[in-house]
Amino acid sequence: MNKFVRNLLTEWRRLGLPFEDETMIIAVSGGADSVSLAVALDDLAKRKKLNLNFIIAHFNHNLRGAESESDAEFVKDLAGKLKFEFAGGTPDPKSPIQNQKGNLEQNARSARYKFLGQVAKKHNAFGVLTAHTQNDQAETLLFNLIRGSGLEGLGGMRSVRDFEIIEKFQIQNSKFKIIRPLLNWVQRKDTESFCLENKVRFRQDTMNDDLKFSRVRIRKEIIPLLQKLNPRVIETLAKTAKLLSEDAEELSNISQNNSGNITQKSLKAHSKSMRLRVLRDWLKRHRGDLRQIDLKHLEGIERLIFSRKSGQLIELPDGEKVIKREGKIVFENSRVEKS
Amino acid sequence: MNKFVRNLLTEWRRLGLPFEDETMIIAVSGGADSVSLAVALDDLAKRKKLNLNFIIAHFNHNLRGAESESDAEFVKDLAGKLKFEFAGGTPDPKSPIQNQKGNLEQNARSARYKFLGQVAKKHNAFGVLTAHTQNDQAETLLFNLIRGSGLEGLGGMRSVRDFEIIEKFQIQNSKFKIIRPLLNWVQRKDTESFCLENKVRFRQDTMNDDLKFSRVRIRKEIIPLLQKLNPRVIETLAKTAKLLSEDAEELSNISQNNSGNITQKSLKAHSKSMRLRVLRDWLKRHRGDLRQIDLKHLEGIERLIFSRKSGQLIELPDGEKVIKREGKIVFENSRVEKS
After folding, report:
1. Which helix (H) or strand (E) segment is B321 a member of?
2. How far apart are CA B161 and CA B172, in angstroms?
3. I need a surface site. Which of A279, B95, B240, B337 has the fewest CB within 10 A?
4. Alpha helix positions (H), chain B
């Protein structure tokens, strides 16, 4: 058995994933990472190591015209060759991603995950498999470090977590998982080698070279400089993220007992870092997620609580507000649904 | 009062530092940061805001020939102008820094701190003031992130801590502090402006431009790239470091209760991150500090504990060893004193 395939099986076991009688959605963009994941899972299926129903899902963001179309065709062909069912998706034609407000990368990601969630729900899947690697983890850590997100953000992605569908700003904890079986041990160079060794073609996303995206700058400019100081920096950062996410979890257990009812008095008892953690938990509880939230918002809420004037407010992204009323902070969601 | 001077006084108060009847050593290299600190403290002394005995200390590392000499002269002159006592130091002529084994920057730092500790001890000082800024804090965070040091290292430097003298590999907790009154609010550009506004000259250290040093690469190459993604990244990283150091402290309180007697069983009860933290505390207790220790050493000790073979050992920098004997780990310091 190929080493990559063997290691995938080892990680599958380590993560406690099922070996039979379940449906798994594989999210495939057509790049080397996701193609490797699909091909290696097919190998394990052929060897009867995994007896699962795999479905390849591809979301065509429609951001690159003909290139997007060929990617979708390519992934559909791959699914055909592997004899996996194929599920394709595109954005709502009434709301193309490039016309949406806010950050293009984040909007594309939201639309993609919404689609993956729908596919998983429809097929009553155990989970959605994504091909994130140590490189993605290292980039996530750096991305969050640069924007100032604190310990939670530095912890990056988790290998297995509940898939949360964000619909109309309420979170429904669904029964399926998001699973990243390459996150802990694979680097981008490994998946490219795997494809080359196995004579499997993969696609290059030209948006991966567009320096107007922060992620691309981190990948193409910042990480190569870090590698001059530590040639194994990707592995180092990915391991650091994992440790920091465990640290965050320990602290989160303490914080969650304190984020129900926030007053000036209850916050004063904590260190600044624990105060921000409690506020983060409080905000997540009311808002559903922490997207686009950074340190300056949390510090704003902290100042709001400790200021003597009442009736003041802090504006959050997307028109949400935190208001102080009678010494307590209140979350107000004034995002208006478009009819 | 100049804004810089006023803010220094505010921070002085916030840190709970004494206003009279104490001796304070100011560590001055001659660069803009330390010259600003000395000049601003002199201003506060002249305004009778601080009634302290200031001594300017300068350590000439003797690494840059005539340039080093002129820096030392420059700082001595500055002390004369401010009417502060001056204490100069140089490395032991029998052991010049450039001939010492190991990392040049670390050896220079050790020699400098040893000197500062001696000056503080001699004058029975309250503390040693250093002029580290948010830039230094941001660089420390990045330096530690790149080498893989976990939450503790990412927390960077503290504004006030006990000064530990490392002498013959034993730590004597001394009665004086190391104090960094610029760390939380000053950036390098602020000290340069302060010097220019006040028509005070300062020196440029040519080693600050030498890209063979990791610190210089971080400062000159990496941070400018990060600033393209977040123009306020220095402030962001410095604030992040502060929050992370508070997080580390919360977790450290939990860990320290567990690092006395390490066995396989006691470690197994923890998450990986807490295991490493317990090992780090254990190592610090035996070794005095964690210099040159990174993730791979800690993971080595972890593997040692969990491996079934006994008699194995992990080598640490400077010839120290961790050995497993009868299920327990033992620290062995085989660093040999040169006669």
Report:
1. strand B321-325
2. 14
3. B337
4. 3-14, 32-46, 66-82, 104-122, 134-147, 150-154, 188-197, 214-217, 223-229, 233-256, 264-268, 272-287, 295-306
Find the closest chain B residue to A253 by CA distance: B251
ipTM of the complex: 0.84
Q: In what order do the strands lie in the sheet with B20-27?
A: B85-89, B51-59, B20-27, B127-129, B170-179, B160-167
> Does the predicted TM-score (pTM) go above 0.90?
no
The angle that helices B295-306 and A233-256 make with each other, rounded to 10 degrees, is 70
Per-residue pLDDT in tens (0 to 9) along chain A, 339 residues:
899 999 999 999 999 999 999 999 999 999 999 999 999 999 999 999 999 999 999 998 888 778 888 899 999 999 999 999 999 999 888 888 888 887 888 888 888 988 999 999 999 999 999 999 999 999 999 999 999 988 988 999 999 998 875 544 344 556 889 999 999 999 999 999 999 999 999 998 777 777 778 889 999 999 999 999 999 999 999 999 999 999 998 888 778 777 777 878 878 877 888 888 889 888 888 888 787 888 889 989 988 888 876 568 888 887 889 988 877 888 888 654 443
CB A219 within 8 A of CB B136: no
- Residue B324 forms beta bridges with which residues? B329
Q: Which of A145, A221, A254 to mutate to test the interface with B (most CBs of B within 10 A)?
A: A145
Task: Indicate the length of chain B as a whole number.
Answer: 339
Q: Please name the residue that has the structure tokens 């003031």.
A: B129
